[in-house]
């Protein structure tokens, strides 16, 4: 662990110890003074509390499922399954039955307790899973199907037990059924396991998500401990444990959302690296390869006069390509205006007088950073083809907006070609791929002896 990561872990550890101390002191106060362990007969508030918890658990499950579909970590798969079980059991067994003002029957209450217990079992197992899954869609479908089967079994077992199940309607703490106490203690134990597991993961990996999950599990642990000492009225009461449970799910929601944002940032960085690598490969690397080839020819005894001239030409082209790449990448990054970079490129290209280029960029037309680099390369490829292959003397480049759409066109007066008579080259395929990568349409029209026109239509 690096020094800064170790300091971060120590700061988190001491803050967690402080939180546990404060929550433990509050719990001890409630245990020592039973009069403080109040429940409030607020059926509507209980319904609102359960609804908020259900929605928070569902959102956490959805975000964890999105993370799993991207990264394939079993940690996210188990989190998705656990919070799905918690959300569905709360909706099915706690919210749905009382919407019409009906009381909650023991069968539904105990099925909900069992369903949430199964959900927390998956959550507690999550921090100890370190593998990835290749078949992500299939694994996610199996997990959700498994959760549905488990909840159905919970309902079936509770319905079969029927009248033998103890009632949860008493408002006296000493009347809580032993089975309920065991269930609450099991959930508290699972919350403790999850807290320790995510804490160990954060110590080993320094992952921000593990820190938030550990905090959420800590709050869930003390919520379950409060339930152990507070009468649990299933139909219309709320207690201190309910507020801790709400806070726990809020913390979990924030943590998973932060993880999703971090994953998006990491993916954007990876895409930017791939784009820069493609620019180097498609441009500068080709000219450097030509320089290396001519140098090898000199070593092999080729004619120095002819080879040195070719080597000098290749080196000059590599230098020019490096300038083009810097201009393109800097404009895409926002450190240089796109139109200035494109005009400088045209100046470089037309410096020897072999090609005349008219560049027109309509005022008010804006290109996103990802569009700038691709449009730059498309224009570069189009003008290079006009100069090298079509032997054009004049070309026009226009970037404009018409009827709510943005158009990029390159038109030359070169030799042209028969579109149906030749196979598309790599340059044409690259232009199509670049246009597609920014969601644009690509169209090329060429007639032998009458030049070539290419057009890119960008999204609004």
Bin the helical content: 55-70%
At CATH level 2, the architecture of the largest domain is Up-down Bundle
Report the CATH C-level class of the largest domain: Mainly Alpha
Residue ranges: pLDDT <50 for 5 or more in a row? none
Number of domains: 2
**Got a strand count?**
7
**Overall pLDDT:** 80
Order of SSEs: HEHHHHHHEHHHEHEEHEE
* Strand order across the largest sheet: 3-4-5-7-6
Distance between the termini: 48 Å
Which descriptor suits the 3D outline? elongated
Under CATH, the topology of the largest domain can be stated as: Rhopdopsin 7-helix transmembrane proteins
Radius of gyration: 33 Å
Characteristics of this structure?
460 residues, alpha+beta, Rhopdopsin 7-helix transmembrane proteins, Heat Shock Protein 90, 5-stranded mixed sheet, two-stranded antiparallel ribbon, 12 helices, elongated
Walk me through the structure.
The protein folds into two domains: 3-270, Rhopdopsin 7-helix transmembrane proteins (Up-down Bundle), CATH 1.20.1070; 337-460, 2-Layer Sandwich (Heat Shock Protein 90), CATH 3.30.565. 68% of the residues lie in helices and 9% in strands. The protein is built from twelve helices and seven strands. Helix 2 runs parallel beside helix 8 (240-299). The mean pLDDT is 80.
Helix and strand layout, with pairings?
Blueprint: H1 3-32, E1 40-41, H2 43-71, H3 74-95, H4 106-125, H5 136-161, H6 178-205, H7 208-229, E2 237-238, H8 240-299, H9 304-333, H10 338-349, E3 356-361, H11 369-388, E4 394-402, E5 405-412, H12 426-437, E6 441-447, E7 451-458
Parallel strand pairs: 3-4
Antiparallel strand pairs: 1-2, 4-5, 5-7, 6-7
